[in-house]
Design brief:
Residues 149-189 form the B box-type domain. With 239 residues, the chain is an alpha+beta fold. It is built from nine helices and ten strands. The chain has three domains: 1-84, Zinc/RING finger domain, C3HC4 (zinc finger) (Herpes Virus-1, 2-Layer Sandwich), CATH 3.30.40.10; 88-152, 30s Ribosomal Protein S14, Chain N, CATH 4.10.830; 154-239, Double Stranded RNA Binding Domain (2-Layer Sandwich), CATH 3.30.160. Helices cover 39% and strands 12% of the residues. Strands 6-5-7 form a three-stranded antiparallel sheet. It has a three-stranded antiparallel sheet with strand order 9-8-10. The N and C termini lie far apart (67 Å).
């Protein structure tokens, strides 16, 4: 894979369970990869059934597969996180559909790799380095570069939308909690997302279980019909 490909296809290195860059990536028998903690938590729910499935392709495994770290994938993800790729400016030049680095000057602005929810700015590989090297900036929250950065900020208080109001079913900032949403049922946005993902996984498991039950019923009916045909063939007088 070329270095340009690594930069352009970051979604391939995100866990489909937590939707973030893979942490201690492991690859299961069907070939899909997940964070170790994510897939272990997903499979813990299947311990009673003893049948374990892939959240993406639904292939099942028995017994529970042994997880081993994918070292090659871990190295690629680490490079994405630390911005250590040495890509020429020509390869990173922003296309019209790309998010542009806010700190590049001149006519050839580079494509932004990450957006900072604290600085409210997007950074190319070069200008992103300070967020990995300067202690105060290391604490900032970085996400994949997005043109909708302002949508993650409270329009009233200009602060990050880090809280979810269950009363009003909307994301709010901490200042909102003290003002117009005071006394409402609130949780962190991360908690709400985790619970929604958990509910989604449970729903997917139920759908998968229903599909398996239907397949079993269809097979049983087909077997009964085949048995009846055989019986009629050898015992036509029984009709």
């Amino acid at each position: 894979m070329s270095q340009q490909g690594v930069l352009l296809d970051q979604d391939q290195f995100c866990c489909s369970i937590c939707l973030e860059l893979l942490k201690e990536p492991v690859t299961i028998p069907c070939g899909h990869s997940y964070c170790r903690s994510c897939i272990e938590g997903y499979w813990d729910q299947d311990d009673l059934k003893g049948v374990y499935s892939c959240p993406q392709c639904r292939q099942t495994f028995t017994p529970r597969p042994i997880l081993r770290k994918n070292n090659m994938l871990a190295e690629v993800v680490e490079k994405l996180k630390t911005g250590l790729q040495t890509v020429s400016p020509a390869l990173c030049s922003a296309e019209p559909e790309d998010v542009v680095c806010d700190f590049c000057t001149g006519d050839r602005k580079q494509k932004a790799l990450m957006s900072c929810l604290v600085c409210l700015a997007s950074y190319c590989e070069t200008h992103l380095q300070s967020h990995y090297e300067v202690a105060p900036l290391k604490k900032h929250k970085l996400i994949k570069a997005t043109a909708q950065l302002q949508e993650k900020i409270c329009s009233h208080h200009n602060k990050l939308l880090e809280v979810f109001c269950r009363t009003d079913q909307q994301c709010i900032c901490y200042q909102c909690v003290m003002d117009e949403h005071k006394g409402h049922d609130t949780v962190s946005a991360t908690t709400e997302r985790t619970e929604k993902q958990s509910q989604l996984m449970i729903s997917q498991q139920k759908v998968h279980q229903r599909d398996q039950e239907r397949e079993k019923e269809v097979k049983e009916v087909q077997q009964a019909m085949d048995s009846l045909k055989v019986n009629l063939h050898y015992n036509p007088n029984n009709v």
